[in-house]
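The records we work with from here on pair a chain with its fold. Each token is a code from a learned vocabulary of local backbone shapes. A record is reproduced here so that you can trace the correspondence yourselves:

_____
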Amino acid sequence: MQVKAVVTLTGPDSVGIVDEITGALLDLNANVEKSQMAHLGGEFAVLMLVSMPEERLAALDEGLDDLIRRGYKLTLTRTEERPAAVRTRTSAYRVDVTGADHEGIIHDIAHGLSEQGINIESMETSTTPAPVSATPLFAMRAVVAVPQDLAEENWQSTLTEAAHQAGVDASVVRLDDAAAAL
């Protein structure tokens, strides 16, 4: 029987790290179904959903043992999809936020969304220096799941107010089911 697990791995960035991780997974007959990997500071972070034979799941730690000995941190969480009947019917939207960087932007936006019962499905954030002044500029792109019974004008006005309080701009685009990814 196939099982699914969320695997996270963090540690020093080095050439070949993705090759090493995916090779170990392949040796265990694991398939990477979804992943995000990023160089953050001097570290490399991996977040992936893998499917694999249940009897091989316990061997995953051993398969990545060399990385663990070299100081990488590994977590493994077995997961199961919730039945469709349990999930709330939602519509997917992309939320883009931009402005001068400062503490609390992500919290302000996340708080405004969560108060409306909106779930953040995925999010990417970054900062870059402005072209002339080198002032740090913040950018966020999130895909959110909005309950279908929530009036669009209500939740979007709450988001606009949260963005205003944070001193940033926010825009919203409705996504169709096929485009509900970053």
User: Anything to note?
Assistant: The first strand starts at residue 2 and ends at 12. The chain has two domains: 2-79, 90-176.
